Amino acid sequence: MPSTSRLGLVLTLLALSVVGAPPAKADGSCTAGKYCLWLDSNFSGCKYEFDRFEPDLRNSYFTDCPQQSVNDQVSSFDNTTGRFLLMWSEPNYKGKLLCVTQHQRANVPLDMNDKISSIRAYAFRQPGCN
Asked: What is the CATH number of the domain that holds 46?
């Protein structure tokens, strides 16, 4: 009898550990033709993969960490498209601007790290981008 109750306890603890496990983290890759943002530098941590404009990231959440807002939490990015990706420090395409070229993959510069609040893609380089 004692071994059966011990087995039951082990199975219960195992079930609880699986249910309470945190979501899987990003593997550092981005699907071709998409834009990806990561919570941490070097393409690690929670990932947000998208293919549309985002005028206000306050209502967007990391794909694999649905409780974590993307707004002001981006430390690395990957633009796997042939478009320019512009990122602003304020919602609705306002504030300081970060220009990302086609197929660019990098950490967010320190002056914009954890400050991105809106994103828009363009077919051509935009004014204000060097």
From this structure: 2.60.20.10
